[in-house]
Amino acid sequence: MEWFTAPEYWLSRLVFQRALAGVYLVAFLTAALQFRALLGERGMLPVPRYVERVPFRAAPSVFQWRYSDRMFAGCAWTGCAVAAALLVGLDSLVPLWAGMLLWLVPWALYLSIVNVGQTWYSFGWESLLLETGFLAVFLGNDRVDPPVVVLFLVRWLLFRVEFGAGLIKIRGDACWRRLTCLYHHHETQPMPGPLSWFFHHLPRPLHRVEAAANHVTQLVVPFLLFAPQPVATAAAALMILTQLWLILSGNFAWLNWITVVLAVPALDLPTDHRRLAAPPLWYEVVVLLAAALIVLLSYRPVVNMLSRRQVMNRSFDPLHLVNTYGAFGSVSRIRYEVVVEGTRDDVPREDSDWREYEFRGKPGDPRHWPRQFAPGHLRLDWLMWFAALSPAYAGPWFGALVERLLAEDRDTLRLLRRSPFPPGEPPRYVRARLFRYRYTTWRELRETGACWDRAYVREYLPPTRLTSAAQRP
Fold first, then answer.
1. Which residue has the higher pLDDT, 407 or 277?
2. What number of other Cβ atoms are within 10 A of residue 140's Cβ?
3. Are strands 355-356 and 358-359 parallel, antiparallel or unpaired?
4. Is 418 helix (H, G, I), strand (E, B) or coil?
5. Quick one: DSSP state of residue 250?
């Protein structure tokens, strides 16, 4: 069927698939390196405890049948290996059906991880990766031309990502309507990057231009994705440019990176318009059935997107096939940080030798300049940002974190930038205090070398110790 394929997009498909494989690789690598302390058998939120109370139909996962840290590591590292194979183009060297199965493997493995990941995997970009990965299964390989319907569904996903984010902003915090949110956002965002300090100090009129441009890109430009070429290419290019600006301004894991990936298939890249083999009938049937399923499942996300009570980053099915997205419907005006400290003193007093634990990405030492971690994802650091907003966010896991610091748990300490205590000499007490952080001015930066200034607000957790061996993880 001539209408079924779009041979002129074979290069766009190729770039999309290789870039998506790179995002998969980062996601699986992050899981492999962090899971023991977060989700392992002795982790803060152990998977075995979770699957005991959550049925398979609510959270499909291979770990519903059996869990061990070795099995989780095997899944994560297998995901890394398959993603690396897809990155170098193995799917193009095998038959069409085998290439589709190869793309199905990382989707199924990552679904198994996300569905038992609990709070640590509650971010919108987890569902976004799964939804994108599911569509990639049906894009085919070098044996067939790209199917038009799947290219359309990729644009439909990109439309929902951008338009949903625009709606949540314009309906949410009034500062988005007043174009003043970026007076605060670069300072209060979850994990600033190395350039965030400079973005914050841009002139306020430029911040207003940023906010206005964001509204145009998210509320107007997405409709142009469905226009004829070259309009669709221009719309996708503008979205890519906006995402690159966001990548420079902060650390948002792979959210911006995968949005760039989603925009690629809308680009009409210059090619030789080579004509590949006609797709087999079974492939056409499978693609059309998958497309019908996506259209059917889009009903609830669209209703949510159009509702005045719109929620963001929610999955409406346990397979995360079609989801709703959005970010920063409200923007914090003040930045709070939880500072975790320990002491080896037998009796904890205010003048005790309290030493601060340093995290990899979240602000701590005012002189420590933020680093670039995205597209990597520091899950503990992100949850510490939520913990500073409200202790309720940290209720399920913060006490377990403190216990593991007191017990000198190696897997937990690996998540940190630095422990202030030498090996074999863990603290006797750990406490947490809440501080208000703000960026220093240009003058303060020159005089002190510190990019942050902080002021004590209140006690977050009083000095705590292990009272029995049973408390040890």
1. 407
2. 26
3. unpaired
4. strand
5. B
pLDDT in tens, 108-160: 999 999 999 999 999 999 999 999 999 999 999 988 999 999 999 999 999 99
My answer on whether omega of the bond before 426 falls inside 30° of 0, hence cis, is no
Q: For the whole model, what pTM was predicted?
A: 0.95
In total, the chain counts a number of residues equal to 473
Q: C-alpha distances in angstroms, 399 versus 123, 340, 417, 462?
A: 22, 12, 20, 11
Question: Measured between alpha carbons, how far is residue 215 from residues 178, 186, 192, 205, 222 in Å?
Answer: 12, 17, 22, 16, 11
Say how far apart CA 407 and CA 395 lie, in whole Å.
20
Residues 6+ apart with CB under 8 A from 62: 71, 75, 109, 112
Supply the DSSP symbol for 367: T
Residue 190 CA to residue 370 CA, distance in Å, equals 12
Tokens, residue 312: 């963001």
Task: For residue 148, list its beta bridge partners.
Answer: none
pLDDT exceeds cutoff 60 at 1: no
Query: How far apart, in whole angstroms, are the C-alpha atoms of residue 204 and residue 178?
Result: 12
Q: Which residues make Cβ contacts (< 8 Å) with residue 360, sequence separation at least 6?
A: 371, 373, 378, 381, 415, 416, 417
| Start-end of H helices in 40-118 | 47-53, 69-87, 96-114
Q: How far is CA 11 from the centre of its chain?
A: 27
Closest listed residue to residue 277, CA positions, set 96, 35, 24, 466 = 96
Half-sphere exposure at residue 262, Cβ-oriented, CA atoms within 13 angstroms: 30
Distance CA 173, CA 208 (A): 15
Angle in degrees, 0-180, between the axes of helices 10-39 and 124-137, rounded to the nearest 10: 140
Phi then psi dihedrals of residue 176, to 5 deg = -70, -40
